[in-house]
Automatic annotation (TrEMBL):
Identification of the protein by name: Ammonium transporter
The organism's place on the tree of life at top rank: Bacteria
Family according to the record: Belongs to the ammonia transporter channel (TC 1.A.11.2) family.
Residue stretches spanning the membrane: 21-40, 61-82, 120-138, 150-172, 184-205, 226-251, 271-288, 295-313, 319-337, 349-367, 393-418
Localization, UniProt: Membrane
UniProt cross-references to InterPro entries, sorted A to Z: Ammonium/urea_transptr (IPR029020), NH4_transpt_AmtB-like_dom (IPR024041)
Sorted UniProt keywords: Ammonia transport, Membrane, Transmembrane, Transmembrane helix, Transport
Residue ranges occupied by any Ammonium transporter AmtB-like domain in the UniProt entry: 28-441
Primary localisation category: membrane
Membrane topology of this protein: Multi-pass membrane protein
């Protein structure tokens, strides 16, 4: 006769449900971000490669999504296991695809074993979306030039690498965050890491036909719909507020909000910082665009403001955030101009995540040094005491270097393996002919 299972009501209270809904909304926001990114791609990718580029991004997203469910979450959760005296392997055993906690009903798990289990299970979904987004962003750098097989292999490796990095640089008790590195939104392991991979792959993939010099079949590379790309930018803007809510912890009394880094903040401040980061970036981007007569900065501007602000949405004041965001597009402008003059065919990740991302992390180190954060709520002494760690410029530099360096190393190793196995690059003539026609029988350009 089957024994009755104990019910732990503390795991399924109304308060728990409200938190579950907050974090579930973050997954909705992340999926909206994916939709926005696909719109940006559809608006800026040559028509002859449009379907192939879109479908590779979608497949790459779900490769990352599934890989994260298989093994990724245990790496991030491992910081809390180590804090409690357990090991990373204990975390991986509990949270891998067939793990005990990943497959348990919350009401049947004693809160003494793992409180708030529903929330952590939803967080698998939330972070799996961002594992997929890592691959979508990477594809922006290599689309139309990299073999699909090579890209899909890269997606698996990039997902695992990003998951390991999240343990180190995002949360509150990972080794770098506990020591003083501050990155509220996780741009290090989501944005800067794939940029490092791209920095290795892009020079080996070369230029696309028509981008810098005419090709007999592609006299000039034409973006089919800048308006659609702009709509994609606004879709990203619409989705991210829900994601920001998922980067907050809610603790007693009532729904007191602290950031995932354990810094003092509030829901209103975090969301208004986000809003003003976009506004400041958009205004400067528009000014640069009118000055240079180049439409790209109208798209870069709000994104640059967001990327620069994201590491500190929890600690800036809104007026400070606006001023920081006003300067962000200049960093993207400098990187874009430098790469364009040198014929480097990468116009998205490098300007945004090297230009604006580095700038944003350094602004925190310069102007918020000494801000208390790190540790864990309720711990009053020891290496994980609540807010024992302080932001420092050196730790901001260290975090940026680790994330970019990890990407560079992975890109180097992958390029060696892929060139010796599947091959890396699509031949130039195939690129010029159009991958939609060659792979899928779609003659988009001749149909107009």
């Amino acid at each position: 006769m089957e024994q009755a299972t104990a019910i732990f009501a503390d795991q399924v209270t109304l308060s728990q449900l409200l938190q579950n809904l907050v974090y579930a909304s973050g997954t909705v926001g992340a999926i909206m971000v994916v939709a926005g990114l696909l719109m940006i791609d559809a608006g800026t990718t040559r028509t002859a490669n449009l379907y192939n580029s879109t479908i590779e991004k979608m497949v790459g997203f779900f490769i990352g999504f599934t890989t994260y469910y298989m093994i990724g979450f245990g790496f991030w959760a491992g910081q809390y296991y180590i804090m409690g005296g357990a090991t990373m392997m204990d975390s991986l055993k509990d949270w891998w695809f067939f793990g005990t906690l990943a497959n348990a009903h919350a009401q049947n798990v004693d809160p003494a074993v793992w409180p708030g289990l529903n929330t952590f299970q939803i967080f698998i979904f939330f972070l799996a979306c961002f594992a997929g987004i890592v691959n979508v962003l990477l594809h922006f750098s290599v689309s139309e030039r990299m073999k699909a097989s090579a890209f899909y292999i890269t997606c698996v490796a990039a997902t695992i690498g990003s998951a390991v990095l999240s343990w180190a640089v995002w949360g509150s008790v990972g080794p770098l965050t506990n020591a003083g590195f501050h990155d509220f939104f996780g741009i290090g392991f989501v944005y800067i890491f794939p940029t490092g991979i791209a920095m290795v792959l892009v020079p080996q993939l070369g230029q696309r036909p028509g981008v810098f010099s005419p090709h007999p079949k592609v006299p000039v590379y034409q973006a089919p719909s800048i308006g659609l790309a702009a709509t994609g930018v606004i879709t990203v803007f619409a989705g991210l507020p829900m994601v920001i809510m998922s980067c907050l912890f809610f603790v007693e009394p009532e729904a007191y909000a602290i950031s995932v880094t354990m810094a003092d903040t509030s829901v209103g401040i975090a969301l208004n910082n986000y809003a003003l980061a976009w506004a400041g970036g958009a205004l400067t981007g528009a000014a640069i665009s009118y000055y240079t007569k180049n439409y790209i900065y109208l798209l870069f501007g709000p994104l640059a403001g967001y990327v620069a602000g994201a590491p500190g949405f929890d600690i800036w004041l809104p007026w400070q955030m606006f001023l920081i965001a006003l300067g962000a597009p200049f960093g993207s402008w400098l990187v874009y101009s430098w790469t364009f003059r040198r014929g480097i065919d990468e116009h998205k990740l490098f300007p945004l995540f090297i230009g604006a991302g580095f700038y944003g992390l350094m602004m925190i180190g310069l102007f918020k040094s000494g801000t208390p954060r790190g540790g864990y709520w309720g711990i009053t002494e020891g290496p994980y005491a609540y807010q024992h760690g302080q932001i420092s410029l050196m730790m901001q530099l260290a975090g940026f270097a680790l994330c970019l360096g990890a990407g560079l190393l992975m890109g180097f190793v992958l390029s060696l393996i892929l060139k010796a196995t599947t091959g890396l690059r699509i031949p130039t003539e195939d690129q010029a002919e159009g991958l939609d026609k060659l792979k899928w029988g779609l003659d988009n350009e001749s149909r107009g």
